[in-house]
């Protein structure tokens, strides 16, 4: 699990420097995930911001402070999640017909519309609609960017590119929390309008940059556009790449994709649930839903509010600190992901997250409302965030690696939708548990999520196949051959190796033929002399 060598049929040079161009492209492709972190941080701050509460909340004479109705609180948070759910369901048919880049452009357009509405309106109805629309946009940003990165990054660097993806999300959270901190004392609408304007920045940058990037070569191959797929692959790889390496990689993609398309000719949504695809679909759904199953949804969106009711002084400052820990975790994970198995990351991450939830619940049970308890809540909230962010990108990574290329858009879209359904249920029910006007559990809500994290860790140990450094074509071969989860790591993919070897042999024959032709030509020239 830790540091052991992996078997791989990846024909590319297994370093980082040879693939800096593709890493840079993946960085731009995932820059819109900044939106997801930004939204969670901003909205969590709005719920404790007088300038926002004066418009959408009420003054509570009992608490002698501005407050918000739990139903309004739920809808503001949850409608965005419902939107991401709807958007994710539509990913499959949209991506199959229009590709990954078109999905990102469509997400940007919806983002611009939703943000303009939120800045300009004072109506709850309009705000609800904008939150729903923004949710569709964020769902597409997340899903289409991940599909693109899954399919363009070299196998040994997919983990690093997903750590970069998580860094973008964490940076969004830090920016959101920091801007909220800077504007939360403004007593009018500008308190939340200024932070909302940031929603325009990342999508604008990405929308322009995408004009200069190719579409996914694997998506093009699925469409039968193999010449365009080879051109796209060349644009993604560094210009000085060895020609044999590039042709070997392309032949693996081409031959394996032909096989995958041949096996999935019927309605793609139905093919997900048939034969060997059923196992792949269920695993993809399960591992992506790790996000909602560990309690991250309510911790992320209610961090500032949660710290406020826990009696923590300067909750906005602590919220920024905790979010900063998430960025550190994302950076740290990028350093070890090439050397530690995906399963180990999942198991350790879920276990520590569960213990962090339990610690908060226990201390609040023993000493509710005390300063010491508040300090423990902050400490373990930070620990939870660190380990969650450290393993979160690799749950997304595994969820996109398991499906085959013909079904990836549908399968990953459904998995993401179900995860957001879990997030919706988490954000919908959390106010009832933590809001003093309802059950008032506060940190004791962690008891529920401790049990959930235990289930996640056990599932990861028993059922997740190991895919570190494997090409998507190797993963397909192992699933088709019904390899047990515990044997994935040591399995030799003979079929994929033969695809690459065939190109190597052909390249050698071409080189020998060229040498012979040069010799003949040289002999002829000397004879003339």
What characteristics describe this protein?
single chain, 529 residues, mainly alpha, two-stranded antiparallel ribbon, 2 strands, 74% helix, 1% strand, globular
Number of helices in the DSSP assignment? 23
What is the C-alpha radius of gyration, as a whole number of Å?
A: 25 Å
In whole angstroms, the N-to-C terminal distance is 67 Å
Order of helices and strands: HHHEEHHHHHHHHHHHHHHHHHHHH
Low-pLDDT segments = 505-518
Short description:
This protein is mainly alpha-helical.
Would you write up a description of this structure?
By secondary structure, the chain is mainly alpha-helical. The protein contains 23 helices and two strands. The chain has helices at residues 20-29, 34-46, 50-56, 70-120, 124-152, 158-183, 190-197, 201-209, 217-222, 226-236, 243-263, 268-271, 275-288, 290-293, 296-301, 303-309, 315-336, 342-366, 371-401, 408-434, 446-463, 472-480, 494-528; strands spanning 58-60, 65-67. It has a two-stranded antiparallel ribbon. Helix 4 (70-120) packs across helix 8 and helix 6 (158-183) packs antiparallel against helix 17 (315-336).
């Amino acid at each position: 699990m830790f540091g052991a060598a992996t078997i791989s049929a990846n024909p590319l040079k297994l370093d980082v420097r040879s693939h800096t161009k593709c890493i840079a492209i993946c960085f731009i492709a995932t820059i819109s995930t900044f939106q997801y972190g930004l939204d969670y941080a901003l909205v969590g701050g709005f719920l404790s911001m007088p300038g926002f509460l004066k418009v959408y909340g009420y003054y509570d004479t009992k608490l002698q402070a501005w407050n918000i109705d739990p139903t309004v609180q739920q809808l503001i948070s949850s409608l965005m999640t419902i939107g991401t759910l709807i958007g994710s369901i539509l990913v499959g048919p949209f991506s199959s017909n229009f590709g990954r880049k078109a999905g990102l452009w469509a997400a940007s357009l919806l983002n611009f519309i939703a943000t303009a509405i939120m800045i300009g309106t004072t109506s709850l109805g309009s705000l609800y609609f904008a939150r729903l629309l923004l949710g569709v946009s964020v769902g597409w940003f997340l899903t289409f960017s991940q599909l693109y990165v899954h399919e363009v990054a070299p196998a040994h660097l997919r983990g690093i590119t997903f750590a970069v993806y998580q860094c973008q999300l964490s940076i969004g959270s830090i920016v959101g929390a920091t801007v909220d901190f800077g504007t939360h004392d403004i007593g009018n609408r500008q308190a939340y309008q200024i932070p909302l304007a940031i929603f325009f920045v990342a999508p604008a940058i990405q929308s322009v940059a995408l004009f200069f990037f190719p579409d996914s070569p694997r998506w093009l191959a699925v469409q039968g556009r193999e010449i365009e797929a080879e051109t796209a692959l060349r644009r993604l790889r560094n210009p000085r790449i060895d020609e044999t390496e590039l042709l070997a990689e392309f032949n693996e993609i081409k031959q394996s994709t032909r096989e995958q398309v041949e096996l999935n000719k019927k309605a793609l949504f139905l093919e997900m649930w048939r034969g060997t695809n059923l196992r792949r679909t269920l695993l993809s759904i399960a591992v992506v839903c790790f996000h909602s199953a560990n309690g991250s949804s309510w911790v992320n969106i209610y961090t500032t509010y949660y710290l406020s009711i826990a009696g923590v002084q300067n909750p906005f400052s602590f919220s920024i600190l905790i979010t900063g820990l998430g960025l550190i975790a994302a950076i740290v994970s990028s350093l070890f992901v090439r050397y530690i198995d995906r399963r180990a990351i999942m198991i350790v991450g879920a276990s520590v997250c569960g213990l962090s939830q339990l610690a908060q619940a226990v201390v609040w049970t023993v000493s509710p409302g005390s300063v010491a308890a508040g300090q423990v809540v902050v400490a373990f909230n930070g620990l939870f965030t660190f380990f969650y962010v450290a393993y979160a990108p690799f749950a997304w990574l595994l969820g996109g690696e398991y499906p085959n290329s013909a079904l990836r858009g549908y399968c990953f879209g459904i998995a993401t939708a179900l995860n957001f359904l879990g997030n919706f249920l988490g954000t919908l029910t959390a106010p009832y548990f933590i809001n003093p006007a309802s059950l008032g559990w506060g940190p004791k809500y962690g008891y529920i999520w401790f049990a959930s994290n235990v289930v996640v860790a056990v599932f990861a140990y028993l059922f997740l196949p190991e895919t570190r450094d494997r090409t998507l074509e190797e993963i397909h071969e192992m699933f088709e051959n019904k390899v047990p989860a515990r044997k994935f790591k040591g399995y030799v993919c003979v079929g994929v190796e033969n695809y690459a070897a065939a190109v190597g042999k052909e390249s050698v024959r071409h080189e020998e033929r060229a040498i012979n032709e040069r010799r003949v030509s040289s002999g002829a020239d000397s004879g003339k002399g």
